[in-house]
């Protein structure tokens, strides 16, 4: 790690909020995900399917944001937290909104904290995702 | 205590990439992974967390009981690695989680979960 590494973007995108994204929880898709992690597809939507319906629909907005200038090849997912008020059921449509909670550079490494709030059709919060992304110099 | 050992394979990582939609080539293409300084393809952190989640749900008494899951992705997992995931009660509604590879290295650290009793 070099102290001379310039931050990739001097301004950063802290506070930036992306448009909400709707996602329908399809039974087949949830079952495919369950099989991929070795869970019983009959046990319903796996909690970590939030990687798809919450983080998975909003993180691409950050990655596609030219101002955020996140280079995929240098990106590390360093930490992840999900908190659930409840877990979604197949057939439900949920809506997720992503926000850059913080964006700081230290010693050439950039730390982006990205939060996603997922709500159900009634607008009631269902899941919150907090991801910490580290972008290597 | 709930426990599960998983031997990671390229096929499993590719299956997770497909199922999750995370098709970053560092998980799928050895040549690309090496070009960005990795030893070859690596498992998704979220695949590790998914496996950790199943063990946590088991200890919590079912997937619907889980209210929080947290971890740090501390170590790379590559095809051929065997990771043992464990979940242990650490007080009312709290689980302490561990994921340790065949060399005894923790691949997830500070991993915890909360659940409804």
Structural class of chain B: alpha+beta
Please state the CA-atom Rg of chain A, rounded to the nearest Å: 16 Å
Largest sheet geometry of chain A? 5 strands, antiparallel
- In spatial order, strands of the major sheet of chain B run 1-3-4-5-2
Oligomerization state: heterodimer
Strand content of chain B: 25-35%
Q: Main beta sheet of chain B: strand number and arrangement?
A: 5 strands, antiparallel
Distance between the termini of chain B: 16 Å
| Proportion in helices of chain B | 25-40%
Order of helices and strands of chain B: EHHHEEEE
Q: In DSSP terms, counting alpha (H) and pi (I) runs of 4 or more, how many helices of chain A?
A: 3
Radius of gyration of chain B: 15 Å
Q: Gap between N and C termini of chain A, in Å?
A: 8 Å
Task: Note poorly predicted spans of chain A.
Answer: 1-10
Average per-residue pLDDT of chain A, rounded, comes to: 91
Concise overview:
With 137 residues, chain A is α+β, with helices and mostly antiparallel strands. Chain A has helices at 27-36, 50-53, 55-63, and strands at 21-24, 75-84, 93-106, 109-119, 125-135.
Could you characterize what this model shows?
The complex is a heterodimer of chains A (about 140) and B (about 120). With about 140 residues, chain A is α+β, with helices and mostly antiparallel strands. Helix content of chain A is about 15%, strand content about 35%. Chain A has three helices and five strands, in the order βαααββββ. Chain A has a five-stranded antiparallel sheet with strand order 1-3-4-5-2. In chain A, a hairpin with a 5-residue loop joins β4 and β5. Chain A is globular and about 45 Å long. Chain B contains three helices and five strands. Chain B is elongated and about 45 Å long. Chain B has a five-stranded antiparallel sheet, with helices on one face. Chain B has about 120 residues and is an alpha+beta fold. Chain B is about 30% helix and about 35% strand. The chains are: A alpha+beta (about 140), B alpha+beta (about 120).
């Amino acid at each position: 790690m070099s102290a001379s590494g310039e931050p990739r973007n001097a301004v950063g995108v802290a506070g930036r909020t992306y448009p909400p994204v709707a996602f329908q929880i399809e039974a087949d898709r949830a079952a495919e995900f369950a099989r991929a992690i070795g869970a019983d597809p009959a046990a319903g939507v796996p909690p970590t399917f939030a990687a798809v319906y919450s983080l998975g629909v909003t993180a691409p907005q950050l990655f596609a944001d030219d101002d955020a200038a996140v280079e995929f090849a240098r990106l590390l997912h360093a930490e992840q937290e999900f908190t659930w008020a409840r877990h979604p059921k197949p057939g439900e449509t949920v809506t997720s909104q992503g926000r850059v909670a913080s964006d700081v550079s230290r010693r050439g490494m950039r730390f982006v904290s990205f939060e996603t709030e997922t709500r159900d059709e009634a607008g009631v919060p269902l899941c919150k995702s907090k991801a910490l992304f580290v972008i290597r110099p | 205590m709930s426990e599960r050992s998983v031997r990671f394979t390229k096929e499993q990582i590719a299956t997770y990439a497909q199922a999750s939609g995370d098709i970053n080539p560092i998980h799928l293409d050895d040549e690309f992974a090496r070009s960005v300084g990795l030893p070859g393809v690596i498992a998704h952190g979220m695949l590790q967390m998914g496996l950790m989640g199943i063990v946590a749900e088991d200890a919590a008494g079912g997937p619907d009981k889980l209210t929080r899951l947290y971890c740090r992705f501390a170590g790379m997992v590559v095809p051929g690695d065997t990771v043992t995931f464990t979940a242990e009660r650490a007080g009312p509604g709290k689980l302490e989680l561990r994921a340790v590879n065949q060399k005894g290295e923790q691949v997830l650290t500070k991993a915890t979960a909360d659940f409804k009793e």
